[in-house]
Design a protein that fits this description.
By secondary structure, the chain is of the alpha+beta class. Helix content is 32%, strand content 24%. It contains 13 helices and 17 strands. It is globular, with a radius of gyration of 22 Å. The model has no long low-confidence stretch (mean pLDDT 97).
Length: 478
């Protein structure tokens, strides 16, 4: 084996249940030291420190503050943009730098303290955390939402994913109630995994029927119990190193996990611009490239963690890679984002750390996927207890072509996907839909209460609607 072969040799996770809890910097430092200890590597000797973007707090110098805490002077530093693919992109960059001989070791860490932020807010207190960025920097978008999406109030994932969910449901030929029952069957096994995971945020086993009935709607047809739980206090870290350094540190072979192959690709950035609203063109291409680079296939996998922020993310992945949603391996090793926890951009660090621990314990191969933005960005990574393959790079293996987006439209269209936004009191507030119109697709809002009730009572995809525009916002009626 090449002495420059990168391997994962340190893992750590932390979940804080008592609020208020530590700030993100404290969590970064704690998990970084724990992962470095697990790797038998003094934290001050780290050559690279990389941090996943945190929504909880904007520091003046995130990596610099962590390096100072650790007493490290890393040659390489990175702080990611927003998105659920960020952890794998950082891990992939670290592995590439190690293989090229630029560095010998790298830490990738991330943390959120959104539950603590909520606790302070509910107490009417300001968050007393250290080293704030002044002025506060812009949000870490790679690309901001489209002006037409913003004009129609469409920017929260709970609404964009719900629109794709209804498009998927219609294409699958499921009635509204059938989709909810199918969702319950798919996600109930995830609650069992979370119940056995000491780091999971929600550790209550739920039955398919309980999940199908759900609780209050958030973005119809999604209920609160079947979507990612964002307000968590969680942190994770991994340490990668060159095999020759792992040898010098005395890390046993059975505690090394290898990135056999990974790939990145993109669907469209705008939901309405997807060629097929309920399906992903990119996922199949990305998974295929990851498996090819790993020299392995889906049938070789002993464990899976498919990104699970919303049901449609699981469904599109299963459709694209030919995976049964009720596969005997299960869809997650953590419990998934709705139950283990969905710490903003950081979840894939938790699924990677958990997968690494599993492969240390039982050997074999595991697949970990990531999703960024509105089912736009995709990573697939094959991890193994055995070296081999060729890891890959962040260069996209596929980029989907966009359907034209019509900002303002007056005339008739056909519903391609839709959702109804609900308030905290459980009541329906407004609808947002994507309509097929001459020249492309358009967003529209639904305002009338009787139309919102109708939209939730039956399948609206395929319904002909009338759009009236004021030049910025299209309003749909039927």
């Amino acid at each position: 084996m090449d002495p420059r072969t990168p391997c994962l040799i340190g893992i750590a996770q932390r979940t804080v249940r008592e609020q208020p809890g530590p700030e993100p910097l404290d969590l970064w430092a704690e998990t970084a030291r724990a992962a470095a200890d697990d790797a038998r590597l003094p934290a001050e000797r780290l050559d690279s420190i990389q941090i996943v973007y945190t929504d909880s707090w904007q520091y003046d110098s995130p990596v610099g503050r962590l390096a100072e805490r650790l007493g490290a002077t890393p040659r390489h530093r990175a702080y990611s943009k927003v998105g659920g693919t960020a952890p794998q992109l950082l891990i992939g960059e670290a592995a590439a730098r190690i293989a090229a001989g630029d560095i010998d070791s790298a830490l990738v860490t991330g943390a959120e303290a959104l539950a603590t932020r909520r606790a302070y807010r509910q107490a009417g207190e300001h968050v007393p955390w250290s080293h704030p960025a002044v002025p506060k920097p812009p949000y870490g978008w790679e690309r901001p939402p489209h002006p037409s999406a913003l004009a129609h109030g469409l920017f929260l994932p709970v609404h964009t994913y719900a629109i794709m969910e209804t498009a998927w449901r219609a294409a699958a030929g499921l009635a509204v109630e059938e989709e909810m029952r199918d969702r319950g069957r798919m996600m109930a096994p995830m609650t069992e995994v979370a119940a056995a995971n000491p780091y999971a945020w929600r550790r209550t086993v739920r039955t398919p029927d309980e999940l199908a009935r759900g609780d209050r709607f958030v973005g119809w047809p999604y209920t609160r119990s079947t979507v990612a739980v964002l307000e968590v206090d969680q942190a994770a870290a991994v340490v990668l190193a060159a095999s020759e350094l792992a040898d010098r540190l005395g890390v046993p072979a059975e505690r090394r996990v290898y990135l056999r192959g990974w790939a990145y690709g993109e669907d469209t950035w705008e939901v309405a611009a997807r060629p097929v609203l309920g399906a992903s063109e990119a996922i199949g291409k990305v998974a295929e490239a990851a498996f090819l680079r790993a020299g392995l296939g889906l049938d070789d996998m002993d464990a899976l963690d498919i990104y699970s922020c919303f049901a449609v993310a699981l469904r599109q992945a299963c459709d694209a890679i030919g995976l049964d949603p009720l596969d005997r391996h299960g869809l997650t090793v953590t419990g998934g984002l709705p139950y283990a926890g969905g710490p903003a951009s950081d979840y894939v660090l938790h699924s990677t750390a958990t997968m690494a621990g599993l492969l240390r314990a039982q050997s074999g191969h595991g697949l970990v996927s990531g999703v960024g933005m509105h089912l736009t960005k995709h990573t697939y990574a094959v991890w193994s207890s055995e070296p081999g393959g060729r890891p890959g790079s962040a260069a996209p293996v596929f980029v989907a072509k966009e359907v034209p987006l019509v900002d303002a439209f007056d005339g008739d269209g056909v519903v391609a996907g839709y959702t109804v936004a609900h308030g905290r009191d459980g009541g329906a507030q407004r609808g947002v839909l994507v309509a097929e119109v001459p020249g492309g697709r358009a967003y529209a809002v639904v305002e009338r209460a009787e139309l919102l009730a109708d939209a939730e009572s039956r399948e609206l995809v395929g319904q002909r609607v009338r759009l009236v525009s004021d030049g910025k916002v299209n309003v749909a009626t039927w």
